[in-house]
Amino acid sequence: QAQVLESGGGLVQPGGSLRLSCAASGIIFRVNAMGWYRQAPGKQRELVATIITPGITNYADSVKGRFTISRDNAKNTVNLQMNNLKPEDTAVYYCNARVAVSPFDYWGQGTQVTVSS
Q1: What is the pLDDT, as a whole number, of residue 100?
Q2: How far is CA 88 from CA 12, 49, 63, in A?
Q3: pLDDT tens digit sequence for 68-91
Q4: SS3 letters for the chain?
Q5: Potential cystine with 33: which of 47, 68, 98, 110 (Cβ 3.0-4.6 Å)?
Q6: What pLDDT shows up at residue 46?
Q7: Residue-level pLDDT at 89
């Protein structure tokens, strides 16, 4: 059974750091890309960062220079190092694993990140 499990969320003060981790297991297809998305209250889910290989990454403009995504392709794990966090980063963060065939996307249950003083 496919599973995507996130960990590492929590409460942090503005300017602080958090590291999110995610592991995908039980997916029988090759995982082409992994990434992080987030959804704040009253807003649509949005892309934070995605990675295909260590050299091919994509970041939302709002997190460039503050967040770093990394991946272990062999283990289907992905991490998100978040530095200089801002209150507007507060959201539920979801891990995504993408494959080339249906169902195409596997999602985790989400982990809450709250940035507040």
Answers
A1: 84
A2: 12, 16, 10
A3: 999 998 899 999 999 999 999 999
A4: CCEEEEECCEEECCCCCEEEEEEEECCCCCCCEEEEEEECCCCCCEEEEEEEECCEEEECHHHCCCEEEEEECCCCEEEEEECCCCHHHCEEEEEEEECCCCCCEEECCCEEEEECC
A5: 98
A6: 97
A7: 98
Whether the bond between 41 and the residue before it is cis, its omega within 30 degrees of 0, is: no
Q: Supply 79's token pair.
A: 């991490």
* pLDDT < 50 regions, the chain: none
The answer for residues whose C-beta is within 8 angstroms of residue 36's C-beta and 6 or more apart is: 20, 22, 48, 49, 50, 69, 78, 80, 93, 94, 95, 96
The two structure tokens encoding residue 92: 């539920």
Query: Residue type at 41?
Result: P
